[in-house]
Amino acid sequence: MYITSIEIRDQRFDLPDGVGSDATHTTPKYAYAVCCLRTDSPVTGIGLAFTLGAGTDLVCKAIEYISVALKGREIEELMADFGNEYRRMADSPSLRWLGPHKGVIHLALAAVVNACYDLWAKSRQVPLWQLLLDLTPAQLVNTLDLSYFEEVLTRDQAIALLEKHLPTREERTGVLSTGYKGYDTSVGWFNYPDEKIVLNTRKAMDNGFNAMKLKVGSDDPGRDIRRAALIRQTAGDAATIMLDANQKWNLPQALYVCEKLGDINPFWIEEPTHPDDVIGHQAIARAIAPFKVATGEHIPNKVIFKNFLQAKAMDFCQVDAVRVGGVSEFLTISLLSRQMGVPVVPHVGDMGQIHQHLVLFNHIGMGHEHLFLEHIPHLRPYFVHPAEITGGYYQVPQVPGSSSDLKD
Amino acid sequence: MYITSIEIRDQRFDLPDGVGSDATHTTPKYAYAVCCLRTDSPVTGIGLAFTLGAGTDLVCKAIEYISVALKGREIEELMADFGNEYRRMADSPSLRWLGPHKGVIHLALAAVVNACYDLWAKSRQVPLWQLLLDLTPAQLVNTLDLSYFEEVLTRDQAIALLEKHLPTREERTGVLSTGYKGYDTSVGWFNYPDEKIVLNTRKAMDNGFNAMKLKVGSDDPGRDIRRAALIRQTAGDAATIMLDANQKWNLPQALYVCEKLGDINPFWIEEPTHPDDVIGHQAIARAIAPFKVATGEHIPNKVIFKNFLQAKAMDFCQVDAVRVGGVSEFLTISLLSRQMGVPVVPHVGDMGQIHQHLVLFNHIGMGHEHLFLEHIPHLRPYFVHPAEITGGYYQVPQVPGSSSDLKD
């Protein structure tokens, strides 16, 4: 199957009032820069990068520059050595000045890379999770770029990690019957009034979720504390509650407010400060233990993830395949996280469409713990095969590809 | 003086063969995304962001989105509280998703911010260095965004640092007579053959430079070692020689090659590995001491600089005002570097045009050591007021503004 042309789309979606709001991103749209790889068959590879609307056109333009190298390529041949292909695209000698490996050009790379994996899975007529499980450890590692990981995860170590988990896969394939557990992110968006949070919490529990998230980071910490107590009271002591500050606090604020929020026994505190601040997160993680720090949705690449892991500055790794360089870099970071004993609980800029595949592979193929995957329902109507959640569990996708197709 | 409209230009410059080449950026053009603030007077504020050609249009488009807030603003009123203005632009709630504070949108912010300072200086009819020296410590700090610096440099500490250096300014104003020392970056571009390096080294010394740089990072470390020995032999033991790997090495390679390169007694080794790798640089700095590590041209923002300084991962801070968020973030990072005892030796994506002003202020206003400033002559013909180097010294610019005007 040959890639014959590349089509790029800027798709933006209005959201109902308050939906998606957090302490930092107060008035979001959701949007995708979409890379479509047309082929000499009816099959099209679709890759997404997520934005909040503004500037999606910049990512689209960058997709055009990066994807040009893919025209004429045969998909099996392309993916057989994709790690090197990835590095060529990520390190294009002049374009990389605009990053490197971050910002607009790296978001664009995510879309391009994701389209390649989607096309690959579709060409083999299997869902992405199945494709990844079907690859040998060496074949999988061939799709990754492990450069700058030499001191923490060599190619041999990556292959060994995957090989080690081959014989025990059956112990973990139960997830293919139960589905992968979800958690509800949408009970407590920042701009929602208290009453709505209480209602949403009850609704989430009625729908089978026992894990959910509240947005914090208010100018008045009293608001955060009140709302956190409210959701704990409504959900009960058995529920798992995560708090998400979306980078709003500086370090002294984070230390002050996290101590107060400990009263509701949160499962984690997410993005307590600036996403680039490895040493700040390290200080917070040390100070708030045994409470845990989660971060990753704004960490652009594997090198910064490496630093976070080395510094023990994150207890949960929230890498997002539509923020880092797509499925390839997601898997690279998942391998390092596994090597270093940190669970991967992705952020889902893709609304879980691609990540429902990736967490299945992380669990079965790498032995990552089956924790839960963020669930955000607001773009359901726009996907051709929206993720199906039943009783709080993502149902295992069976359609070929990465579930990224959007309706026209 | 009111900003009446904003004009944006994409200016790219071809370079002679080999010029600008390094181990990573093998075939550069030099280019600027230019933000021009037109006013109700003949004066125009010009701000630059530097790229290697590819994708300059993306930066230009982002300038359009960011600068729209400036239309109609009066320059003195704008700059009186520019720190908050800066933060509003840097943290635009949806656009920041594309960063935050990195990549295309942050380069665009650099151009916008630099245009504001240029216009401010021109409106007061003084060169930028003079403008900065004329501000009171509080007025200067009002132009900075110190968020996420709370644990290392508060507003009061920043003002105190500037106040402390007020009474001793006269001890440092000698630089206004001598000029600011330069070093020659262009003797040893990566693609230059050995003979050319020898010739250039001799020429540099004839022109009064006793400090110069060689590009390293060859696939064959033997080439680096041979060329480093050659330049040391040509320049003599008294010369100051810097080696620049432009991110090419992974950590084990860096440790191996740096040890060999120590033989020529380099003044620093620059960008030995991936620019985001704080802990990697920390390991290198520890391993190669007493040799020094310089980095910064690809560090996008103050938070990552903070981490580098906290980790003692850089011995020289090479912040670049056309990479970070312009003059404002440059000064913020310079203040923190001063507070933490690390010299600032800027990278000059602007070819030294703006930085010749900034190092004068860093020295006289903050007490930073008068070391030397990178000199790159290749865009001289395109600037209206190109930096003047005499006997190896930047002559103090006297024309109002930041010396950023480009010929049409």
UniProtKB/TrEMBL annotation, chains A, B:
One Pfam family it belongs to: MR_MLE_C
SMART domains registered for this protein in UniProt: MR_MLE (SM00922)
Signal peptide: none
Keyword ATP-binding in record: no
Keywords: Magnesium, Metal-binding
Superkingdom field: Bacteria
Residue ranges of coiled coil: none
Cofactor: Mg(2+)
GO molecular function, one term: racemase and epimerase activity
Domain Mandelate racemase/muconate lactonizing enzyme C-terminal positions: 194-290
Entry's Gene Ontology BP terms: amino acid catabolic process; carbohydrate catabolic process
InterPro entries: Enolase-like_C_sf, Enolase-like_N, Enolase_C-like, Mandel_Rmase/mucon_lact_enz_CS, Mandelate_racemase_C, Mandelate_racemase_N_dom, RHMD-like
Entry annotated with the keyword Amino-acid biosynthesis: no
Protein name per the record: L-fuconate dehydratase
